[in-house]
Amino acid sequence: xxxxxxxxxxxxxxxxxxxxxxxxxxxxxxxxxxxxxxxxxxxxxxxxxxxxxxxxxxxxxxxxxxxxxxxxxxxxxxxxxxxxxxxxxxxxxxxxxxxxxxxxxxxxxxxxxxxxxxxxxxxxxxxxxxxxxxxxxxxxxxxxxxxxxxxxxxxxxxxxxxxxxxxxxxxxxxxxxxxxxxxxxxxxxxxxxxxxxxxxxxxxxxxxxxxxxxxxxxxxxxxxxxxxxxxxxxxxxxxxxxxxxxxxxxxxxxxxxxxxxxxxxxxx
Length: 268
Ligand SMILES: [Mg+2]
Known about the structure:
268 residues; alpha/beta; Alpha-Beta Plaits; eight-stranded mixed beta sheet; four-stranded antiparallel beta sheet; 39% helix; globular; binds magnesium ion
């Protein structure tokens, strides 16, 4: 890792914190804090990372947020002891200090349809096409990369038929999965704005950082950038708009640096 780049990012964060006196660091989960695994249930947050984030969140005027496509249930498992603000389903459900603070009413209203979609997928997709179905509570995710290439056109045709039966849901095509969502206008920038509102923070008056790794993170990255915040893209990218770290491991290194600068020595 380029040590000077790490120093530059750390210094920018510290400087922005000194300037605004309030720091809000927000992280995507998979591919950002947690390395990908073939089966998403094996992608586990490292204990050491959880501890650093807990220590940072315990400091005055520092807030830590997690903004993930996964459900709140998973984020609660990750941060069972933490003071983070957790936003599951890209912010359709948010909890602060272990209390559920907000659940998007339209997403709650779409639950019956999601249940129906789950039944269709379990009966019509899973037995014929090797894939993994994740239930995030307010959304579903079907990972199809285990389906051999030759069978994928049939899989997509089958999914199309299910889609036609459920017009109240939105099927988002991702590189190796389909995310099935309530058909509402929502992205991670919306989730991030909700988090700021719940914490009573104004983006312009806060040292704001967002780190994420996929296209789904771009709205949040662009929003933070537009507020002169600090943005980090993890993994492959051709953009030079944001800072770039190679992997979750590099982000962990940055977190350790921040811990050494922001957490008093006796607490480390
Ligand atoms: Mg991600």
